[in-house]
Design goal:
The chain is mostly helical. It has 16 helices and two strands. The radius of gyration is 23 Å and the shape is globular. Keywords: Membrane, Transmembrane, Transmembrane helix.
Length: 484
């Protein structure tokens, strides 16, 4: 019997990643899905900025950023209740479709209220902050649930090309559409795109070939923990706090975003100084135009490098070097960046290093972080990953804001001292990445030794890992083990 052959589209995709026969359709559908998702977000991204500055002030905007994290504290337990209610019903895409429907209904409501003249600037800004992290987390939780460990490591870098294309396309179109149809109709366009993402869910689920699909049986929790009781307020956070592996990932995501946000502050300081120097040399220049032109070029280079890395580099890094090595790359780039800037605080150097950091952050780092959840249980993939990618990510923003407030208002630190603090934080992120990499390899080994079981199985024997790496079933089931 002849083995299946690659189709013509799959042969083309083979240039970018290691593709197996039958995977072309699922790759194409997931590329389209994440493209539409990021396009929907980037279309309304300028709307939130315009509305909050019309209805409020820059100070109000700063308070609204903090309100996003507070909102997530209350939203995540509700998300956990929805997961418990839908788990095992309606297929793997059910949870994502429900969450998409919720955000579509919100967009329709905001559009109607805005058209009626109701001031929605502040609540819409907070809502977009939640929307941006929640829906991306849903997509990648869905992806880690669909694909098995080896397929996910091969294909996630390629699938993430869709997010880079969606972000770039949305950035190009948002200004034109905002001017031509206005902010409230632009919300309707975004809602329509999200509806398409939800509709594609079932088709994506059915398109994954058997050899690439997760085996349908849930794996054990990375560390045994009691199942959260229905209605327990902190149930979603408990999934993270009771697993050392997830807690390390949460700490890593928090510190990385803290460093990245502080890097943005450092860059803006150098840009402001540079603009002042240019205007002093040529008073006919407009400082705002100088700064705007810099950031336009800056984000353009980031988008281009992100796309190139995602298309030609990320999949090969994950396949050849593994997730553990890929996870170390962004912290290493950050350590090198802030060490060089502290040594030579030159504007040209800051520009190049920050472009490199952001490009790695949005490509290699993002995809490797999503891959960390492949060997985990469904509860950890959905609730754990969503909690980390939403609340803990935004918590890094809060820590950055508090640090800058303390450094500038209370401690009177200069940019040189802030650079050294950021360098120390980057080193902390590197140390955490090393610990995560070790635990990830242990989780991979455990998941590879799990026998395939039918979805309807109600009892399982968890796998224990000895110091030598061998696996064996324990003498008795772990109390409180969570079923798939």
């Amino acid at each position: 019997m002849r083995s299946p052959q690659l189709s013509l589209p799959e042969r083309g995709l083979q240039l970018l990643a290691s593709v197996r026969p039958g995977e072309g359709r699922s790759i194409g559908l997931m590329l389209l899905q994440v493209f539409l998702l990021l396009l929907a977000y980037y279309l309304i991204r300028p709307v939130r900025e315009a509305l909050i500055l019309v209805d409020g002030t820059p100070e109000v905007r700063s308070y609204a950023v903090g309100a996003v994290a507070v909102t997530l504290i209350f939203l995540i337990p509700l998300y956990q209740l929805l997961f418990d209610r839908l788990d095992g019903q309606g297929g793997k895409s059910a949870l994502m479709r429900w969450v998409m429907a919720f955000f579509v209904s919100n967009l329709l409501l905001f559009s109607a209220l805005g058209a009626l003249g109701v001031p929605i600037g502040v609540p819409f800004f907070v809502w977009v902050g939640v929307f941006s992290v929640m829906l991306v987390a849903q997509f990648w939780a869905f992806a880690t649930d669909l694909f098995n460990l080896h397929a996910g490591k091969r294909l996630f870098g390629l699938i993430a090309v869709g997010s880079a294309l969606g972000a770039w396309t949305g950035s190009q179109l948002s200004g034109q559409l905002f001017a031509s149809i206005g902010p409230y109709r632009l919300m309707l366009v975004s809602a329509l795109l999200l509806g398409c993402v939800a509709w594609l869910g079932r088709h994506v689920e059915a398109s994954v070939p058997e050899h690439s699909r997760g085996d349908g049986a849930d794996v054990e929790e990375s560390e045994p923990q009691p199942a959260p009781r229905p209605g327990q307020f902190l149930g979603g956070f408990n999934v993270v706090l009771r697993s050392r592996y997830l807690l390390l990932i949460a700490a890593f995501v928090t510190v990385i975003n803290w460093v990245n946000s502080t890097g943005g502050y450092i860059l803006s300081t150098f840009v402001d100084r540079r603009a002042g120097q240019l205007v002093a040399a040529d008073p006919t220049l407009d400082p705002g135009a100088v700064i705007g032109q810099f950031y336009s070029d800056y984000f353009g280079w980031i988008s281009l490098l992100q796309l190139l890395l995602q298309m030609f580099v990320v999949s090969r890094i994950l396949r050849c070097l593994g997730v553990r090595t890929a996870l170390l790359m962004l912290p290493l780039v950050m350590v090198a960046n802030y060490a060089m800037i502290a040594w030579m605080p030159l504007f040209a150097l800051v520009r190049v290093t920050m472009i490199a950091e952001s490009s790695f952050n949005y490509s290699v780092h993002g995809t490797s972080c999503h891959s960390l959840f492949l060997p985990l249980s469904r509860r950890e993939k959905y609730i754990g990953q969503t909690t980390i990618d939403t609340f803990f990510w935004r918590f890094g923003d809060l820590l950055h804001a508090l640090m800058i407030l303390a450094a500038t208002r209370w401690l009177a630190l200069g940019i040189s001292q802030i650079l050294l603090v950021n360098l120390a934080l980057a080193m902390v992120a590197f140390a955490i990445a090393v610990l995560i990499g070790r635990r990830h390899e242990r989780n991979e080994a455990a998941s590879e030794h799990l026998p395939a079981q039918p979805v309807a199985a109600t009892a399982r024997m968890p796998i224990e890992i000895s110091a030598s790496g061998a696996t064996s079933p324990p003498a008795a089931p772990v109390p409180g083990a969570v079923p798939g």
